[in-house]
């Protein structure tokens, strides 16, 4: 019971703030919070994870509402929920864990940075210009306006105080720090807004039930628009990824039952399906509420379910209290949330750990800020795949000449990405002028079709020119013979048999060298003709 009340106090200002940042009525944020508790919270996916409207989706929702209208939001959320259910049913919940951590962190930073700049405007009772780039470019003008407007100055100070409280409140002495910082800031904001001469913007709240917008036939017809389908896919991927990554983070906070990823994805889908039917905000797991739930001592799903009941009761019985909350305070709460999503300390940390991943992370963030969330994530994923492919294609190629033999030794993973280096080494061996070429690929752990074809074509070509070419292809490791103090036993002759389908051949040319002579190595190579099987 205590944990559910703590989660309720954390969730209330966040639900309202996310709705305001998303450009929709505050009631829709509360409805999504109620669904996140009563629907998602009741399913046995994750025990302690808490769901509801999230700051990470605020910018995406605002963009969607601006492009397609509030009426289409319900349809988009509804079909995103259905897709999540399908993904969970076919057991693809863990698929999202295969996404590069650099892409995830870059995505969160790309969400958090624009969120901070966009909320700087309502924090001073002003309206944001529009795109992230426009919001950033308009900051100097915003500051100039604040300095000339006393009421804007008061609103800004309330927002700044909220941000400072959000960072420092956890250091408060005694039991006071158990009270959520956002709730303390809301209380201070209400008190200041009630003072004589203070005229800051406060929340506009209507009837909770009247805010429900069930999609009609006209909205469903909008699914014929490719842009709407793209929005559905974007919501599905981002909401699912955020929920399942949060689940992994929450699992590390406690020692209780682990998250059932596919079941949790179905639960998230059920919540978003209902939210879509009611025309509310999309739902995802939220770290702030989940960590508050764990820290409050929750052990079962009851706390995350009951917090939805408290949200519903508060919205139905005390809606007039919500109308007293200054918008600048809610904006300050979201600026703090944006900072945590941005997590600037992760960039130098990633630089120290892995500079390639740092490039992927930074690229994802910059593309999201410059274009849109989906484009940034897709480009980040592509960059991560290219980086992984390059690293998996590390091929070591050594070349040297010994007497009459030009030797090329390869090790590592030889893929088409390293084909230029392979071709260069082969051509160098051919240009050495030696009558014999030895290609040793036994140290190659993976040889793809492109490299194998190039090597075999080169071998056939040089043999056609009259050169002696020895080609040692990758094969299974040979077991070492046991150590014996007696005379070595003579090996029994291998029975003549046709090679099996898994046979590994050593391609050795037994033809004589130009000039008609053979050296001991040639005699050995000529005798080394049996098939070796795995």
From TrEMBL:
- Ranges for region Disordered: 478-534
Q: Which domain of life is it from?
A: Bacteria
Q: Which UniProt keywords apply?
A: Membrane, Transmembrane, Transmembrane helix
Renumbered to this chain, the signal peptide range is: none
Compositionally biased tracts (Pro residues): 488-498
Its cellular-component GO annotations read:
membrane
This protein's membrane topology, according to the annotation, is: Multi-pass membrane protein
One of the GO biological process terms: transmembrane transport
Q: State what protein this is by name.
A: SulP family inorganic anion transporter
Organism, as annotated: Streptomyces chartreusis
């Amino acid at each position: 019971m205590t944990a559910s009340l703590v989660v309720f106090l954390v969730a209330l200002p966040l639900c309202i703030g996310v709705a305001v940042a998303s450009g929709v009525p505050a009631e829709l944020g509360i409805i999504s919070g109620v669904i996140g508790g009563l629907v998602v919270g009741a399913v046995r996916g994750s025990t302690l994870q808490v769901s509801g409207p999230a700051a990470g989706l605020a910018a995406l929702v605002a963009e969607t509402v601006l492009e397609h209208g509030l009426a289409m939001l319900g349809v988009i959320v509804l079909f995103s929920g259905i897709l999540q259910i399908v993904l969970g049913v076919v057991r693809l919940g863990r698929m999202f864990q295969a996404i590069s951590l650099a892409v995830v962190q870059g995505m969160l930073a790309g969400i958090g940075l624009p969120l901070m700049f966009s909320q700087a405007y309502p924090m001073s009772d002003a309206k944001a210009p529009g795109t992230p780039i426009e919001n950033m470019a308009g900051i100097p003008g915003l500051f100039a306006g604040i300095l000339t407007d006393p009421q804007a100055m008061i609103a800004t100070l309330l927002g700044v105080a909220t941000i400072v409280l959000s960072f420092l409140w956890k250091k408060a002495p005694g039991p006071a720090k158990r009270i959520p910082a956002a709730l303390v800031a809301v209380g201070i904001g209400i008190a200041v807004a009630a003072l004589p001469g203070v005229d800051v913007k406060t929340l506009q709240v209507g009837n909770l039930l009247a805010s429900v917008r069930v999609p009609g036939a006209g909205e469903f017809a909008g699914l014929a628009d490719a842009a709407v389908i793209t929005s559905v896919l974007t919501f599905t991927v981002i909401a699912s990824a955020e929920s399942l990554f949060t689940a992994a983070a929450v699992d590390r906070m406690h020692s209780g039952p682990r998250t059932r990823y596919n079941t949790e994805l179905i639960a998230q889908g059920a919540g978003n399906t209902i939210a879509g039917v009611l025309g509310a905000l999309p739902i995802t797991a939220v770290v702030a509420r989940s960590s508050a739930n764990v820290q409050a001592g929750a052990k079962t799903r009851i706390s995350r379910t009951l917090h939805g009941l408290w949200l519903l009761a508060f919205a139905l019985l005390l809606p007039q209290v919500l109308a007293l909350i200054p918008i600048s305070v809610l904006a300050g709460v979201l600026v703090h949330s944006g900072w945590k999503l941005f997590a600037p300390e992760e960039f130098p940390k990633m630089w120290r750990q892995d500079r390639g991943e740092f490039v992927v992370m930074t690229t994802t963030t910059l593309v999201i800020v410059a274009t849109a969330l989906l484009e940034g994530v897709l480009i980040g994923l592509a960059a991560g795949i290219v980086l992984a492919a390059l690293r998996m294609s590390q091929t070591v190629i050594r070349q040297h000449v010994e007497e009459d033999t030009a030797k090329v030794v390869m090790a590592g993973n030889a893929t088409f990405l390293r084909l230029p280096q392979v071709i260069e080494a082969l051509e160098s061996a051919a240009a050495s002028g030696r009558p014999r070429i030895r290609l040793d690929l036994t140290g190659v752990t993976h040889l793809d079709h492109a490299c194998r074809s190039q090597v075999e074509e080169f071998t056939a070509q040089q043999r056609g020119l009259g050169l002696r070419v020895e080609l040692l292809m990758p094969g299974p490791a040979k077991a070492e013979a046991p150590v014996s103090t007696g005379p070595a036993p003579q090996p029994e002759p291998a029975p003549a048999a046709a090679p099996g389908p898994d046979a590994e051949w050593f391609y050795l040319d037994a033809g004589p060298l130009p000039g008609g002579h053979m050296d001991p190595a040639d005699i050995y190579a000529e005798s080394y003709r049996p098939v070796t099987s795995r």
